[in-house]
Amino acid sequence: MELLDPRNDFLFKRIFGSEENRDVLLAFLNRTFAEAGKPPLADIILLNPYTDKDSPRDKQSILDIRAKTTEGEIINVEMQLFNKYDTEKRTLYYWSKQYSTQLQESQPYNQLKRCVTINIINFALLPNTLYHNVFHLREDRTGIPLLDDIEIHFLELPKLDEQAVSLEQGGLVNWLLFLKGVDQTKWEVLTMNEPVLKKAMNTLEFLSQNEEARRQYEARQRYLHDEASMYEAAKVAEAKGWAEGEAKGKAEGLAKGKAEGKAEGKAEGKADAQKETAQKLLALGIELSVIAEATGLSVKEIQKLKPLQ
């Protein structure tokens, strides 16, 4: 039996974000926090448990997992299979929305609870060799925290080398090796010190044999690959626009002045590249909001590019 890839966000949410597997999520979170020197959680409440509505057919779904601790702190876990670029800014943006939407009208600021974001990513992002990086808001010179309300984890799977770790040690490493797709013959060793991990493995095996789950998984995989290709194409188009714009600016600069011509050429080149990319994505039927994020154009500008019916 060929196992499905647990890094697929749809499958990841089914394994870790369902009510029947709440203990699996709790065990994973506690291993993550233990490695960061944090105390374990006694229990969690799932705020958006997996349901049949979490379908790959809804292409704009963000299949993350949101949970609340018994103290009211919010935890968000997201699996990212492909690099959508601007990951750091995107992470901070979603963290800020999670933090700010806690308050109802007229509630005091002291009601705000700590929010933790955990990004499990299938690509190298940060300029170091650590597979687990944790960020807080601290003073530069003394390291004193401003407050503990912000905590962001990046778990970078490509940086985890199974040859350099002991599989018998247990802990977060074993969970990440499972997600990374360690050989099934090593599963028994991984679960020696991580018994709850066995339940995650059993869930993956069950879903891999389920025809409907496999169909939905494959639909989500296709969408994720298409989305990754779209972002890559947008990046290439943007780079091409900058290069063409700079060349045009240099040429016009001979007549208009180097500084003015370069700036204008860059702007025109970039604008042309953005519009060209947007038109191609429109032809593919991509949602306007996704095109806007990929190109930097407004939804109104993109609507003007639609061909007349």
- Uncertain segments are none
Range of strand content: 5-15%
Instruction: Tell me, rounded to a whole number, the average pLDDT.
Output: 87
Question: With helices defined by DSSP (H or I, 4 residues minimum), what is the helix count?
Answer: 10
Q: Structural class per helix/strand content?
A: alpha/beta
> How would a crystallographer describe the biggest sheet?
6 strands, mixed
- Helix-strand string: HHEEEHEEEHHHHHHH
Helical amount among residues, as a percent range? Answer: 40-55%
Distance between the termini: 49 Å
* Estimated radius of gyration: 23 Å
Shape descriptor reads globular
Strand order across the largest sheet: 1-2-3-4-6-5
Let me know the number of strands: 6
How many domains in all? 2
Write structural notes for this entry:
With 309 residues, this protein is α/β, with parallel strands linked by helices. It folds into 2 domains: 9-209, no CATH class; 227-304, no CATH class. Helix content is 48%, strand content 11%. The protein is built from 10 helices and 6 strands, in the order ααβββαβββααααααα. A 6-stranded mixed beta sheet has the order 1-2-3-4-6-5.
